[in-house]
Amino acid sequence: MGQVAVIGAAKSTDDEYRMALSVGRLIAEQHENLLCGGLGGVMEAACKGASEHGGLTVGIVSGSGNGNEYLDVVIRTGLGHARNVLVVQSADAVIAIGGSHGTLSEIAVALKLEIPVFGLKTWDIPGVVACTTPEDAVIRAVGAARRSPLYNTRRAGSGPL
C-alpha cells in the first residue's frame, strides 16, 4: 500500500468538502492509505470518505489533540504549522484541494522533495498538475504513488522478503 496525502484548508467551502469526500472514498477504493493534517474541512472530509469505504486514515496533527473523528491513527506532533513537512514527506503523492497559505507551504515542500502534487481548484503554480475531477486526481496520484521508489520498499511488519 502507498500513502497519499490530502491537503487543504481546515475551513473548506462546500464544494471543496464534497471534492475531498470523493477523493477520500476513491483513495480507499484503490486500497491506499490516506494521510492528512488531521483537522477539519478538507482533511475531515477526505478522512470521512475513506473511513466510510474501509480505508485507513492517518492524521499528523499540529497539536496534542485527537484531530477529526474519522482518523484511525493520530500522530500528535505539537509542531504547529511545521507538521506540514511531516504530512507531505510521509506521502508517495499529494492531492491538494483548494487551500490557503498552509496548503501552499505543503505544496512547496512536496515539490522541493520531488513528491508529485495533483490539484483540484488549488494554487496554480509550476509543478502542480491541475486535475478536473476527484477521479482524475486520484487516478493520477495513485499511479504516481505506485511508481514511487518507496512504494514497493519492504516496511516493518510486512512479512518476509
Structural account:
The chain has 161 residues and is an alpha/beta fold. It contains five helices and seven strands; from the N terminus they run βαβαββαβαββα. It has helices spanning 14-29, 41-51, 83-89, 101-112, 134-147, and strands at residues 3-8, 33-36, 57-61, 73-76, 93-97, 117-120, 128-130. Strands 4-3-2-1-5-6-7 form a seven-stranded parallel β-sheet, with helices on both faces. β5 (93-97), α4 (101-112) and β6 (117-120) form a beta-alpha-beta unit. α1 (14-29) packs parallel to α2 (41-51), α1 packs across α5 (134-147) and α3 (83-89) packs across α4. The mean pLDDT is 94.
Describe the structure in brief.
This protein is of the alpha/beta class and 161 residues long.
Percentage of β-strand residues: 15-25%
Largest sheet: 7 strands, parallel
Q: SSE order, as H and E? A: EHEHEEHEHEEH
- Which structural category fits the helices and strands? alpha/beta
Q: What is the quaternary state of this protein?
A: single chain
**Order of strands in the sheet with most strands:** 4-3-2-1-5-6-7
| Terminal residue distance | 15 Å
* Tally of helical runs: 5
The helix content is: 25-40%
Mean pLDDT: 94
The value of Rg in angstroms is 14 Å
Described by the principal axes of the CA atoms, the overall outline is globular
Low-confidence stretches: none
Topology, number of strands: 7
